[in-house]
Amino acid sequence: MLNCLKAIALLKNVALRPTKQRIALTKILFQDNYLHVTAEQLHSEAIRKGYKISLATVYNALNRFKEAGIVKQVLVEPGKIYFDTNTEPHHHFYIEETGELLDVSDDECKIASLPIIPAEYTVNQVEITIRLEKSKDADPRSRN
């Protein structure tokens, strides 16, 4: 887990005041691997680790982290928003049964063409979320 000094440095590096709550959430979010969490999941994990923090504070912190560019928001369906600590260009698999979000390398998705973009706009980013469900004829012993 990220220690307090590294969490404080990360927050200061993006001009966010290192409050006790932000430090706690940063320590949970920025561990060794990239993480996909909803605000509710992050709140539960913070409570489990003994931090006293409200769900509203978690939402506020995540939105500030998003504005600062240290997390991205991934909308998988209306009302279901994940926050992703991997801010590099990439795509996702969304497993509907479990609600799990998995990273897909940007190199693995090729877009042949885009629709005509209105003249007053430019493409900022393209993100693909591929929704998965268990195959009906899948062998339950198979992992493929």
Describe the structure.
With 144 residues, the chain is α+β, with helices and mostly antiparallel strands. It folds into two domains: 4-82, Arc Repressor Mutant, subunit A (Orthogonal Bundle), CATH 1.10.10; 88-132, no CATH class. Helix content is 31%, strand content 20%. It has four helices and six strands; from the N terminus they run H-H-E-H-H-E-E-E-E-E. Strands 1-3-2 form a three-stranded antiparallel sheet. A hairpin with a 2-residue loop joins strand 2 (72-77) and strand 3 (80-84). Helix 3 (39-48) packs across helix 4. The mean pLDDT is 91.
Keywords:
single chain; alpha+beta; 3-stranded antiparallel beta sheet; 3-stranded mixed beta sheet
**Main sheet: which strands, in order across?**
1-3-2
Please bin the fraction of helical residues. 25-40%
> Please, how many domains?
2
Strand content: 15-25%
In terms of structural class, how would the helical and strand content be classed? alpha+beta
CATH architecture of the largest domain: Orthogonal Bundle
Determine the number of helices (DSSP H or I, runs of at least 4 residues).
4
Which blocks of ≥5 consecutive residues have pLDDT under 50?
A: none
Element order, helices and strands?
Answer: HHEHHEEEEE
Using only C-alpha atoms, the radius of gyration works out to 18 Å
